[in-house]
Amino acid sequence: MAKSPYVWGIDIGKCSLKAVRCRISPTDPRKLVAEAFDCIEYPLMLSQPEADAPSLVRAALAEFVARNNLGSDKVAVSAAGQSGLAKFIKLPPVEAKKIADIVKYEANQQIPFPLDQVVWDWQRLATGIDEGGFVMDAEVALFAMKREQATKALAPFEEAGVEVEILQLAPIALANMAIFDQLPDPATIDPDNPPASIVLVAMGVDSTDVVVTNGLRVWQRSMPIGGGSFTKAIVQDLKYTFAKAEKEKRNAIRAADPKAIFRAMKPVFNQFASELQRSLNYYTGTDRSAKIGKVYLLGNAAKLRGLSDFVAKQLQLEVHRLEKFTALDGPAVAAPAFRDNRMGFGTAYGLALQAAGGANLGTNLLPREIATDRLVAAKRPWVLAAMLTLLVAGLLNFAGWFTAAAGYRSDGYQAAFGRSDAAKNQSAAAKAAFEEAEQRLQKTAAWDRYLVDVHDRRFQALDLVRAIAAVLPRDPEGDLPEQPADRNEIHVDSLDMEYVPDLAVWFTGVERDWDQTLAAAGPRDVPAAVPAEAAGTSDAEQPGEAPVADEPAEPAAATGPTGPTGPGWVVQIVGHHFHNEDRHRPREGEQFVRETLVRSLLGDAGPVTVSAGPKASEQVDVKELGIGYPVIVQRTPVMKVRVKTARDPLVGGSLIGGPGRGGEPEKDLGIELRRYQFVLQFVWQPRVPGSPPPQPVAANQDSGFEP
Question: What is the pTM assigned to this prediction?
Fold first, then answer.
């Protein structure tokens, strides 16, 4: 069946089902044509105690399907905003191809459930700058809901035989509607001078969705106040039944005692305006450049007399009911029943817009297994037809060959066929023997490579420890300063390491610390991924004149890769030093660590003796061991401490005074020193100096072992 150009947007609300059938205008892609609509009110509100919500929804859907022919129309449905999660995340400067990895990492952090228990999707917003494969100031929208919630929302449609193709949160559908209907085309908006944001306040029975957008950015929040809150206030104050209170609320101006009705609702008026003001204050606090324009009230509950005027007075903003859709045309729009309920069709409008392909946000929370099953089911007739065609072609081909062979049955041909078969079998046996020998050769070569690699790697951890000992600063032998604070010593408190499958993910989290560390470390040989000008001082500066790290210089923008990639280890050193007296300025605190340990890890250290490989027993630079990217990730203020004599196992000798010989009792010398504590991390991608990188075993090559 050919796919229909029409789509349905179906909004299952707390008091009614709203649906609209639309298509994109064939003459104007910024117009939506509404051919039909439907609005089915439930006998009871779903929030009433006696209401059976599933039964009411099933009955409404059955009625909807009975009087509307969906045919092959695409269907999009909504889920309540409070049933899902929406996060808008501003990304750090990152390569465009790595955005998906960072979003998945953020999803693990932001979604309070395991990812296998939720349905989630994301989309990059129309912000940020793309330059040279890098993206700056980009924002992404992340949406999620528990899988059981998605299944619950879809269950009534499955029972009614309606195939849903899009499941979207109601606030996001409203945002799509507002961007399409009330704002300029996002493609024409200047990111540096966007229009004022509009605020959609969609009132439901139990809650209200607040959506703020300027066409480029989107923000939403759900408030726990709705039209039912006004009804409950009347019930509590005037002791009416729920049905009577609902009737009096809708016709308050014509009630027997209008003043009593409004007096009962006044606390809810105040609470509603306060919650809305708090939401807008939070939004403008997170985005200082945001400008709030008009506020639009939606939902049938927003028809409450005096609500818009009251909210406008409290917020000091222009507040209107959204009673006109500027980009929705068609015969359905002109129908009196649609005009009477127009304020309740905002969500259905946004859903239909997304199904038609005109929405700005195209995320979909439909479980992937459902979409996959439907795709397979849709392709099954075509697959069967293709298989039948191939079967018929095969039978015809066989019949042709059988007929030809039947005409040539003779003893001479039979003998030739026998010789041909014998030669073929002999060739197959020789080929099998050759392949077996080749496989044995490949296994032997793989074992050789593996054993050589294992032999060399036995000593890599030892070389790492030697390298760390080599990069630690120390005074020349026989020239130990008398004052402990004057010694060029860094003391290691702990050493730890963690394997990281992709170092780029780790580097993304510490990139700002890397820029700060490198900016004041002084001119040295830095990794090729970082431009030389980002490494610190100019050529005219001397090594001892590097600026103090408390006010780091702004690093220059990188022009190449910004960090390590691939698997490796992150090594962490927790250490301290006492080189922090006033006479040491500016070479104190963090700057002392930069000019000694950091520079050494960047390649300014003495050589390290290698234990294995082609350069065994030779001295190499630390970079040849795969060490790089030293980053100071944690700093503490300089503190005065009282210290005793104690051994330092990596530097040798004692912390203060004397050689610290074994068995010598610890002595409190009563010395006060200024201690600076730090945490430094660096990358270690183990290499055997002089050896080429290991060659991966081909996927079809049986190595005979598990490396």
Answer: 0.55
